[in-house]
């Protein structure tokens, strides 16, 4: 039997502005299992990124419960949430929050050394990830202001994977990348998943979505449907056709 890594119960998120309330997530019940590669799709404004941030503990729900491997995280203090995220999660943001006064490589090493004190092992892992993501040694030594947006995005992927997190949360990870570099990012996430790490990814891109084994379609703050594709294999045309049919049914 698979173990649930993420579970929500009646999850709601409401934002208030100018005396008005906007109900972004509405009573979501969700269960994800260890080793899942979950993709969240849906139209703009559906609540995809809001859901991602709630699941990862980056934002607290207004109502409802979130549990991680059976542990309730929704009511943890900010300090305990920070420790939880450090020890269990990797994050890929739409905007890369690299530290300006550190090189690309040092940004990744700093994250790795928060968890492991084995400097040699962390450095080897960081360099391996950077090579896999098509970033050469010249780029490693540059500061964030000296690299392109695509290079910064790939450095952010390496940072997310450096600690072998139990689960990786990715918000439009290929949005700023060309085709080749986007493929390298998807390959890195797919490989992490093959090694047993869970992935939750928000994307508008169907090519990226095909990497997932479970596709959620979110609209108006509720889950309208789910498509199960099984584990990814390149060149699987039936996978493409199944996802296309599902998205068409959802009104994509």
Keywords summarizing the entry:
single chain, 252 residues, alpha/beta, Rossmann fold, 9 helices, 27% strand
What would a concise description of this structure say?
With 252 residues, the chain is α/β, with parallel strands linked by helices.
How would you explain this protein's 3D organization?
The longest helix has 16 residues. The chain has one domain: P-loop containing nucleotide triphosphate hydrolases (Rossmann fold). The chain is α/β, with parallel strands linked by helices and 252 residues long. It is 37% helix and 27% strand. It has a 6-stranded mixed β-sheet with strand order 6-7-8-3-9-10, with helices on both faces. Strands 2-1-4-5 form a 4-stranded antiparallel β-sheet, covered by helices on one side. The chain contains 9 helices and 10 strands.
Tally of alpha and pi helices: 9
Rg, Cα atoms, Å: 18 Å
Q: What's the architecture in CATH terms?
A: 3-Layer(aba) Sandwich
Q: Please identify the top-level CATH class.
A: Alpha Beta
- Tally of individual domains: 1
Give the uncertain stretches in residue-range form: none
Spatial arrangement of strands, main beta sheet: 6-7-8-3-9-10
Question: What is the H-and-E element order?
Answer: EEEHEEHEHHHHEHEHEEH
Number of strands: 10
SSE class: alpha/beta
Outline the fold blueprint.
Elements: E1 4-17, E2 20-33, E3 37-41, H1 48-55, E4 63-68, E5 71-72, H2 78-88, E6 89-92, H3 104-112, H4 119-132, H5 137-140, H6 149-161, E7 167-171, H7 179-194, E8 198-202, H8 206-209, E9 214-219, E10 222-228, H9 237-250
Parallel strand pairs: 3-8, 3-9, 6-7, 7-8
Antiparallel strand pairs: 1-2, 1-4, 4-5, 9-10
